[in-house]
């Protein structure tokens, strides 16, 4: 690089020594060159410069450089044209050497460039302009970056990457090779590759070197090698010839992958397949026999395998009885003894749980037996089969457990349904009164109008009352519809940020808060599992009540604290398998008497007349249903200093 830069400086000197030949020389050289006057206006540039810039600057107009954009070597920091190396040379009268830049063309492509601007003087030594040679470094940069990238890949590879000469001498050794073979790079570089080859495979290396010398590649050659500790390992080799710039083969590159675990897995797989084939070919039944005269027991090998007995051990009724699990086998044991001792003459078919002595593993087996009678008609032998039904029995037990769980869930569903029915009965009872009351008023006022058909003032008065009753009826119907839409939901799945939910609610109440002169303080809220629209309705109702029931300038504080599962279970009877957040909405309003703290959550329940505080009495019932949908708890608390605190317990994420 330094020799080329010196050659560029010598070229600049040659150009400045012969001003008359400047244009001709600039056009003839392959490197990008251009000149400017003392003010930086470009006077001349060659084709190489235009190609490098990606554009042709306007002679006599463009200043300092023909580049579209210039950046520092980081590629991010722009360099204004008035501070580029050529501009510095014209300003200082000194050459600027060794300052690398990046230029960007109009099409967005970039190049690394080393400018070498040199000032030009007339015969009197006065600065008249400058000449600049732009050396394109992009290709060398790409090559260097590529080599560094390749080196990083080699070092980070899980495969051993090794290079060697055609004589088999190791010349490079990466970290993976050190891990696989145990040798460090200083220990192995310079030594012959045969140090890794087992004695019975030494003939492989000459054959590989011969193939490489012919320019052939060795692909995925599976063989064995020996590591530093002397252990044989299975590897897969890919070996390629390495050529120099002239194309001559000068060495080899080897990639070795440790496939020891893969080979062991393949062996185990083959063994497993063979065992499976044998098992499928057999009946999978153990055969046993009891000599009723001597009490001697004979078991087949498969029967012993199922029971976990040594193949050579002598089996007896006592040893078989010892296998029975102590729980649940008493009746079957008595039945088996009666078959042997009393010779009842009946077939035997029973399921036993056993404990295998070989591994203390519990198994379920099905035992079937039938009598073999002698010539005199008396039973002489008891013959039978044994089948391991552990899988089927466990599935049966799992099914029973599942049925029990589903039964519990059904009972819970029935309980919820009963609660829903009770809620519906309460709703129907109260709604029949509250929904009919505005209708009765409408009918009454209509009758009054009919009795006074010519009384305009009465007509206006009663018409307004009819309109008010109709609006109340509409509000009641809307609130009832909202309440009915809150279906029971067990297990909300969406992540809901309560900060966003409360932010939306406060935004909706912004005008009401301003109108009432309310002061609302909101603490940081957590993310919970819940349904965002229902939670938004919950806090909208609570905030609306806090504003409505505060006769003075409302002061509302919304805060939260985390509580443990144990505390939630003890204090609020909530499930103990998750953590909870305790959210408090406090106000300085009229408060609530303790005896009404639970009643206010009943549908249509009101503690004040509509003339005092408007509303339908459904809002807190909706709040309660939303909280229950989220498997939480809600209650009201009267503050000693005045006001109400609505307490909401919700499970966190």
Work out the oligomeric state of the chains in this entry. Answer: single chain
Percentage of residues in DSSP E strands: 15-25%
Mean pLDDT: 78
**What name goes with the CATH superfamily of the largest domain?**
Histidine kinase-like ATPase, C-terminal domain
Structural category: alpha+beta
Query: Strand order, biggest sheet?
Result: 2-1-6-5-4-3
**Residue share in helices?**
40-55%
CATH fold field value of the largest domain: Heat Shock Protein 90
Query: From the coordinates shown, what is the CATH architecture of the largest domain?
Result: 2-Layer Sandwich
| Most strands sheet | 6 strands, antiparallel
Give the beta-strand count: 23
Query: What's the number of structural domains?
Result: 5
Identify low-pLDDT runs.
1-17, 276-281, 604-616
- Using the CA coordinates, give the radius of gyration: 47 Å
Query: What form results from the Cα inertia axes?
Result: flat
Classified by CATH, the class of the largest domain is Alpha Beta
Distance between the termini: 62 Å
Tally of alpha and pi helices: 20
């Amino acid at each position: 690089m330094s020799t080329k830069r010196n050659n560029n400086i010598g070229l600049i000197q040659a150009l400045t020594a012969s001003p008359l030949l400047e244009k001709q020389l600039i056009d003839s050289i392959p490197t990008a060159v251009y000149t400017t006057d003392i003010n930086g206006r470009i006077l001349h540039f060659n084709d190489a410069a235009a190609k490098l810039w990606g554009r042709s600057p306007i002679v006599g107009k463009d200043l300092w450089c023909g580049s579209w954009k210039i950046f520092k070597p980081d590629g991010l920091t722009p360099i204004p044209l008035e501070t580029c190396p050529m501009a510095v040379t014209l300003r200082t009268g000194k050459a600027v050497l060794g300052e690398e830049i990046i230029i960007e063309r109009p099409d967005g492509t970039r190049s690394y460039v080393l400018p070498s601007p040199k000032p030009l003087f007339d015969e009197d030594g006065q600065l008249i302009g400058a000449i600049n040679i732009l050396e394109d470094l992009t290709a060398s940069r790409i090559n260097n970056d590529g080599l560094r990238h390749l080196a990083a890949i080699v070092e980070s590879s899980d495969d051993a990457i090794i290079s060697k000469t055609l004589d088999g001498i190791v010349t490079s050794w990466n970290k993976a090779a050190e891990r696989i073979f145990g040798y460090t790079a200083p220990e192995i570089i310079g030594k012959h590759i045969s140090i890794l080859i087992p004695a019975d495979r030494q003939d492989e290396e000459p054959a590989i070197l011969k193939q490489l010398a012919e320019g052939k590649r060795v692909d995925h050659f599976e063989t064995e090698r020996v590591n530093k500790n002397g252990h044989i390992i299975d590897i897969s080799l890919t070996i390629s010839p390495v050529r120099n710039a002239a194309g001559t083969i000068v060495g080899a590159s080897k990639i070795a992958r440790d496939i020891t675990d893969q080979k062991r897995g393949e062996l185990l797989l083959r063994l497993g397949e063979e065992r499976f084939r044998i098992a499928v070919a057999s009946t999978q039944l153990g055969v046993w026999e009891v000599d009723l005269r001597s009490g001697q027991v004979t078991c087949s090998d498969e029967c012993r395998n199922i029971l976990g007995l040594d193949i050579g051990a002598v089996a007896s009724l006592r040893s078989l009885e010892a296998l029975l699990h102590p729980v649940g086998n008493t009746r079957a044991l008595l039945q088996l003894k009666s078959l042997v001792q009393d010779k009842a003459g009946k077939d035997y078919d029973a399921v036993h749980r056993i404990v295998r002595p070989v591994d203390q593993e519990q198994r379920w087996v099905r035992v079937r037996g039938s009598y073999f009678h002698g010539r005199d008609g008396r039973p002489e032998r008891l013959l039978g089969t044994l089948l391991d039904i552990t899988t089927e029995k466990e599935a049966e037990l799992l099914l029973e457990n599942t049925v029990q769980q589903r039964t519990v869930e059904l009972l819970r569903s029935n309980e919820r349904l009963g609660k829903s029915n009770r809620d519906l009965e309460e709703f129907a009872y109260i709604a029949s009164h509250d929904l009919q009351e505005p209708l009765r008023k409408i009918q009454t006022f209509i009758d009054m109008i009919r009795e006074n058909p010519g009384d305009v003032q009465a007509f206006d008065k009663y018409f307004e009352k009819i309109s008010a009753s109709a609006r109340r009826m509409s509000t009641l119907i809307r609130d009832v519809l909202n309440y009915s839409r809150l279906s029971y939901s067990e297990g909300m799945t969406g992540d809901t940020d309560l900060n966003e939910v409360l932010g939306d609610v406060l935004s909706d109440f912004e005008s009401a808060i301003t109108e009432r002169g309310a002061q609302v303080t909101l603490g940081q809220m957590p993310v919970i599992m819940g349904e965002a629209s229902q939670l938004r309705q919950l806090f909208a109702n609570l905030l609306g009540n806090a504003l409505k029931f505060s006769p003075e300038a409302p002061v509302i504080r919304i805060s939260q604290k985390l509580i443990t599962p144990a505390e939630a279970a003890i204090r609020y009877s909530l499930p103990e398998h998750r953590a909870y957040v305790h959210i408090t909405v406090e106000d300085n309003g009229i408060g609530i008497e303790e005896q009404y703290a639970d009643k206010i959550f009943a549908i249509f329940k009101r503690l004040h007349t509509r003339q005092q505080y408007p509303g339908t009495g459904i809002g807190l019932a909706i709040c309660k249903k939303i909280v229950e949908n989220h498997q939480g708890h809600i209650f009201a608390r009267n503050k000693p200093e005045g006001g109400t605190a609505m307490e909401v317990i919700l499970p966190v994420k």
